[in-house]
Structure formats: C-alpha cells, structure tokens
Amino acid sequence: MTTLAARLQEAAAFLHKRCKTRARVGIVLGTGLGALGKEVQAEARVPFAQIPHMAGATVQSHSGEFVAGTLGGTPVFVLEGRLHYYEGHRLDDIVFPVRLLKALGCDTLVLSNAAGGLNPGFSLGDLMLIDDHINLPGLCGVNPLVGPNDEAMGPRFPDMSAPYDRELKAAAHAAAKAGGLNLREGVYVMVTGPNLETRAEYRMLRNLGADVVGMSTVPEVIAARHVGMRVVAFSIVTDLCIPEALEEASLDRIIATAAAAEPKLTGVVKRLVGGLGR
To answer: Which of 65, 67, 140, 169 could tie 190 with a disulfide, CB 3.0–4.6 Å?
Structure first.
C-alpha cells in the first residue's frame, strides 16, 4: 500500500497538469454554500472522483468539484463540497482534501458550514465566525491524527490552543464590517450525525459552552493545524436548536436558509480572500 505522502504527491501532480493556478489559499464550501464557487474566475474544474485517491461527495447539496482560479484577485483552490463521517468515509479520506491543499502549496484554509444555532441570541441566517470548537469522545470525538504519525507532515502532538488564526479572524470581522454585516463569534461543537439531536442533547451541548452544532469541519481543522496551515472558519445558522422551543427540522428549510444567507457569506469571504492576495 502506498504511503500517504505518495498518494498526496500523485494527486497534486494530477491537478498541476490540469491547471496553471498556484494558490496559497484553499477554501472548503459546506452545505448550501456552493454558489461561492461560481464567484471564482475558474481556470479548471475537476470532479472529486477523477482525482487520484480522493473519495466522491454524496451529499445532495455538495457538487463535489475541485476548482482552481482567482477570487477577489487572489489565486485560490476551492473544494465545492466536503466529505462527512456520517457518509461512512474513513477519517483519512475526510481530511485528504485538506492535506492535498497543503501539498498543492496552500498555507491558509477557509472553511464554511451550515450549523444549528444553540445560542438563544442567534437568529436564522446569522453568520458566525468560529472562535473555538468542541470535539469530545461520546459526542463525536473523531480525530484524523489517531494512528501512526508522519513527522515530516506534522508533530505527534500538535498544539490546539488557538486552532483558528487570530489575524484571520480580525480580517474576517473587518471584511464583514466593510459590507455592513454583523459577524457573530462563538464555539462550534461537532457531532457525528446524520440524525439531528434530541432536546436533551441540545441542552447538554449548550451547557458545554457551544453556540452552534454541526457534523463537519473539526477533523479538517485538526488536519490543517497538524500540517501548519492557518485556519479561519464560518458557520451559517440554518436552524434553531433551542430545547425549550424546538420544532421539527426540515432539510429543505435548512438548505433554503443557507442559500438565502449565502450572498452575505460570499461577500465576506470574497473581501477576506481579496485582502490575503495583497
């Protein structure tokens, strides 16, 4: 069986043959957020399934394409969609795209997701900048670094005291302010899914200190920090998870809420990324 480094090298070589773009910024788009990819002046679009060693996305709202081009004048690589643990993917497969971005030369990672709002002060369609996250055994607790460690890729025990880059967070707030938007900030907690949580579970997650809950992002952040990438991440609040007033969730409503808020997040990310190219 080939090593992870060899698989990454093969995938990177495959993409380098199909695009001239060389980017230091990688972007991963989550549920209902694919329109940002259309803002990219694309040089190349490659389905995940065509990239060596890359698994295909199966979630209906994820197109599953690698896009190379420019956004706001800055060269970028964009992953339109992601892989989730609840789809049955191995953790190595879930974080392979992030490691591939690093192998392609990216040192900055921008992530987005749709999440349920646990903070009673949040409203549908709010944008939240992730300040920290919770990944506990029994909730999800999945970690892509379990197993043998390649010291050439990153340390055995990477520090996570500040997984979300402070300078990038400040730049994100400035990008939101420039567009007249209020960007909330808070803690993201990951659960396995795919079912949504019970009232008791939402109450527990809120008591733990989480502001939003979702089913992605954390493994990618861990893998990115392991290889030394700077990370900034955003959540769109697509449903309200307040135990005292919980209503039955609808996937169609969640996707519609994400789509309605998408132009706001697109503007923030476009201004943020544009600033990174200066």
So the answer is: 140
Write out pLDDT tens, residues 23-76: 999 999 987 677 788 889 999 999 998 999 998 765 554 468 999 999 999 999
Determine the angle formed by the axes of helices 166-178 and 251-276, rounding to 10 degrees: 100
Mean pLDDT of the chain: 91
Vertex 13: Cα angle to 9 and 15 (nearest 5): 120
Domains of the chain (ranges, CATH numbers): 4-276 (3.40.50.1580)
Q: At what angle do helices 4-16 and 91-103 cross, to 10 degrees?
A: 50
C-beta separation of 217 from 29 below 8 A: no
Burial class (CB in 10 A: 0-12, 13-18, 19+), 118: buried
End-to-end CA distance of the chain: 42
Using a 10 angstrom Cβ sphere, with 0-12 exposed, 13-18 middle and 19 or more buried, the burial of residue 155 is exposed
Look at residue 62 in the predicted model and tell me its pLDDT.
Answer: 47
Go through 162-191 and write b for each residue having 16 or more CB atoms within 10 A of its CB, e for each that does not: ebbbeebbebbbebbeeeeeebbebbbbbb
Residue 76, classed as helix, strand or coil, is strand
